[in-house]
DNA sequence: ACTTGGATTGATATCGATAACATGGATGCA
DNA sequence: TGCATCCATGTTATCGATATCAATCCAAGT
């Protein structure tokens, strides 16, 4: 009797309960009109049969998947993870599920990923950043679903935006550093053509220095992203060799800033007395390391939460204009700077 | 002329190309038999029409979704992120996509999540850990797809396993600590009933101490998971108050170990001279912090890679027995211990 | 010339839930 | 009592790609 029997369908559940398949379908929905006892009978029969709702059929017929597609540069980044978690929590109460993909900081890869994700017919798509290939832009524009660009303030948004100006945020940090007396200020970041947010931050750094009439040559490129702790340490080593009189350094993220800090510790260089360090992103490590890290809070979770709100509003028809949520990053001054 | 026209289907592409829908379908597959020129014509027409392949229909008819469902406790954990990334990379070459959900270290939440994921009809499901609710076990057993439990060695596996013994790994660390002369050894971890891997690690810790005839009372519970840096620092504070003569402490993860280390630094307690510290998981931070962290490498990426291999083998019919891949964690001895 | 076989393409039915419309019975109100 | 409503449920057709079977054509082998 080891016949491979096909898994039960709604029709099977309907037969067992003595109702129509349509009633079974309704019983599995939240707010549809089925009597309490019918619903319980249906669910009991389903449980007894081991029935598992088949959303592939539901998706096709109802033209809804309850997916929210999301692209992030890296799955290993705590900032983006925070955003995704808040986004996921925000939309899950409406039964929406995150379909996540990572681009590895590569716009060509992003294009492929976006195409893949759109085939799954998500209800909306959230992308990290505002720089895309022309084809990716076209795919997003024509997708017929809400598009939300995050972690950036694109000049020509495709649809909605929940983000902040990376350049401006760093600029404010430079302004602060200058105001407390630092003059020889360096920047540690990745290659120009990969990490677009990192590039924006560097642009803000340079613009600020120019504005203050300071030397803009202290730029250390730490290679292709992700720029993490190891790269930060390596970059600090380079910085100390090439510009030993540097007074302060701003890093593209807290991770690289922490790496830079450890390099100073290994070399017995006093932070912040000999050199000040600032990071970006307010990662957990920055608050707890010794000395604690001056940084910029970009409100990663809030980006996710606001994006979720925006998506729900759009899907509820409460918003027909492109939404624009601007986050205002905060300077967090701690022990690695005066 | 602002009529809302429905998005084009394969039938539209077929009409435009002058072939049958079936041929269009074939043109969109990798290895199906279509002539080169037909395929190009089809793809050109599709591009001109802005056609986007609709996988909801494909999923239903072909009974394949190309999803691999994955549950992890937290999306913000670098270890699990490493596993997921390696898994994703491993299966993506076969066109398989990860459908990710997180359980927040809660088996009831895991049950809900597993049910949600199974409705999407994945080709296989990967779960983190070997402890589940009875209903979750039943759902997984009856799903009719490969089930892979990871990051653990369950006594009664549901299907396949790619993992290691958390207890044994910590036991080896204790053995090492005893061999170099530590006697008063403490453990910092989470609450017993949430983080099952953390609980296993603590069990291994206690078993090892018992084996060596040492005091097992130095246990600090840092609250519900995730146990991160802040919790590690708080726990170290408690430990120093309650057991000031402790010689060494093993933490449930590198993050809590780093937090504990920073607490020592803030208090001017010498590590490792006054107290030794060990972590778990070989996170990036452990290799780069000063002093660097003694830890256990659980090979998170390898778990993902092996899981991917196993899934591909099963889906290719190359494996009909339940697979059992045992990872052997490595002790990594660094500066926070002698 | 005839068979065989591979390559390419087409016709038809189908995957399983549900949108849209229809129906019967109960309830409310004048 | 009569008519409008609402609630619970049923009927039918359908979402869009593709599994399956069938047909055509051309080259190769005998």
Automatic annotation (TrEMBL), chains A, B:
<dbReference type="Pfam" id="PF13377">
    <property type="entry name" value="Peripla_BP_3"/>
</dbReference>
<dbReference type="GO" id="GO:0000976">
    <property type="term" value="F:transcription cis-regulatory region binding"/>
</dbReference>
<feature type="domain" description="HTH lacI-type">
    <location>
        <begin position="8"/>
        <end position="62"/>
    </location>
</feature>
<dbReference type="Pfam" id="PF00356">
    <property type="entry name" value="LacI"/>
</dbReference>
<dbReference type="InterPro" id="IPR010982">
    <property type="entry name" value="Lambda_DNA-bd_dom_sf"/>
</dbReference>
<keyword id="KW-0805">Transcription regulation</keyword>
<keyword id="KW-0238">DNA-binding</keyword>
<dbReference type="GO" id="GO:0003700">
    <property type="term" value="F:DNA-binding transcription factor activity"/>
</dbReference>
<dbReference type="InterPro" id="IPR046335">
    <property type="entry name" value="LacI/GalR-like_sensor"/>
</dbReference>
<keyword id="KW-0804">Transcription</keyword>
<dbReference type="InterPro" id="IPR028082">
    <property type="entry name" value="Peripla_BP_I"/>
</dbReference>
<dbReference type="InterPro" id="IPR000843">
    <property type="entry name" value="HTH_LacI"/>
</dbReference>
<protein>
    <submittedName>
        <fullName>LacI family transcriptional regulator</fullName>
    </submittedName>
</protein>
